[in-house]
Amino acid sequence: MDHGRTFGAIDPGHSKDKINFLILPGVKNSEYFKGKNITIIGLARSGLSCANLLHGLGARVTLSESQDTPQIHSFAAKLVSEEIKYELGKHTPEFIAGRDLVVVSPGVPDSSEAVRWAQERKIPLYSEIEVAAILCPATIIAVTGSCGKTTVTTLIGRILQAAGKKTFVCGNIGNPFSGEVSRMAAGDFVSLEVSSFQLERIRTFKPKIALILNFTQNHLDRYNDMREYQLAKQRIFMNQERDDFLVLNADDPVLKKLAAEAKAKTVFFSRQDAANPNQAAVLAVAGILGIEKKTCADVFTHFRGVEHRLELVRKINGVSFINDSKATTVDSAIWALENIHSPVILIAGGKDKGLDYSLILPFAKGKVKEVILIGEAKDKIRRALQGGLPFEEAATLQEAVERARAKAFPGDCVLLSPMCSSFDMFTSYEERGRVFKEIVGRLP
Predict the structure, then answer these.
(1) What's the CATH class of domain 37-123?
(2) Exposed/middle/buried for residue 302 (C-beta within 10 Å: 0-12, 13-18, 19+)
């Protein structure tokens, strides 16, 4: 992965034709994409939203998707026009050649042949958040980090709304940025969750406030090492200027050093500033925006968490069933264990991301009674836990839940906290969490 790319500037005056293709009064640079030939690689939520947006702005849009599944067909059915041509189950050079630019969806790696064909033809590669940011008239607050992004992005949105600001909460959190940008206007705010994958292809993306929560092992199936992963994360502030803000975790030595590389004003937060690091990060952003601490405190008091993150699904005969499907890293699972104060039957596993699962052992001993392993990563996790924790394997999530229930006693907790991505058995962590909740809901 080439993190040392140099990028050209966007020319807002690219087209001087009169705008007559879509009325979007608040959108900036509306004519930039008009008449361009654009291929989007990846037809999921962000690819679908981006395709519909660009088509509405007068671009000639095509889509190339390597998978051919019922869910992909459901996304294709939501394209706004038959003029948007697409291919499923493959990538072909014809969908890349002759394009003015290619938009790469977050889940598409550099090793994709479609990406390689675009690079060989020297076609500019954009991310979906780059496209939306070019058009966005609102103030962007961008949040990244190895864990906690969804919670912090949601809380920032809530405090802005509590302060009377029209705010859009989007990104990896569920609503793609490109699906919301047409509704935005100057004076609005965007609380945007961004992943390292999305940051790989930014060119001019420049949030007013950039926030990096933490830096721990993640996505080492995609990056060669932690340094490469860090370089992807810190792209969030590469275009910031002196009147922008970079918010960093003072308790993370890797992040603390980044202040020396930033042009933006640096603001630090620490877990000592609030009940937990997520709240501390939100308070730092609130301080920049002039939002009172009382407003934040009210939001924190009424906040019940986000779906799929330490979500209590049901209690059956004194056993709590908790959905933590969003925990796709070891550190996220550790955070869950630290916040559960009862014995745990842990359901873990999925698609390996190159992580060291043995890191959970010091936190699990004395609390986790047994681990039930599922998914492609179960052999690797078993080797990491060998001799440290009792475990057994299950072929499906249904079987894992049934085994966990059979082993649990009143006062115990059955916790789905996978430490892995979901893509071996499910299309997303959201689907995995929903299935878990459906299974638990059917238990007698």
Answers:
(1) alpha beta
(2) exposed
**DSSP secondary structure string for all residues of 342-388:** S-EEEEE--B--S--GGGGHHHHTTTEEEEEE-STTHHHHHHHHTTT
Determine the Cα–Cα distance for residues 324 and 71; give it in Å rounded to an integer: 23
Report d(CA 230, CA 219) in Å as an integer: 11
CA distance 426 to 432: 6
Q: Which CATH class is domain 131-302?
A: alpha beta
Q: Is the pLDDT of residue 212 over 90?
A: yes
CATH match of 311-442 with 3.40.50.410: no
> What pLDDT, in 10s, does the model give residues 378-435?
999 999 999 899 999 999 999 999 999 999 999 999 999 999 999 889 988 999 999 9
Residue 82 tokens read as 């038959």
Give the residue from 158, 167, 170, 267 showing the smallest Cα distance to 212.
Answer: 267
Tokens 């948007």 belong to: 84
The rounded distance, in Å, linking the Cα atoms of 92 and 97 is 9
**Among residues 268, 258, 253, 252, which one has the least CA distance to residue 236?**
258
pLDDT at 27: 79
Please report, as a single letter, which amino acid is at residue 96. Answer: I
**What is the helix (H) or strand (E) element at residue 21, kind and residue range?**
none
User: Which residues, 6 or more positions from 355, have their beta carbon under 8 angstroms from its beta carbon?
Assistant: 217, 218, 220, 329, 330, 419, 420
The answer to whether 432 and 325 are in contact (CB under 8 A) is: yes
| Buried-exposed string 7-21: b where 16+ CB fall within 10 A, e elsewhere | eeeeeeeebeeeeeb
* Domain segments of the chain as ranges: 37-123, 131-302, 311-442
Long-range CB pairs of 377-380 (<8 Å, 24+ gap) are 377/349, 377/350, 377/351, 377/352, 377/419, 377/420, 377/424, 378/349, 380/352
Whether the model clears a pTM of 0.85, i.e. scores above it, the answer is no
Residue 217: what pLDDT?
63
Confidence class for position 15, pLDDT limits 50, 70, 90: very low
Instruction: Evaluate if residue 136 carries a pLDDT over 60.
Output: yes
Please tell me the predicted confidence (pLDDT) of residue 220. 62
Contact of 353 with 373, CB cutoff 8 Å: no
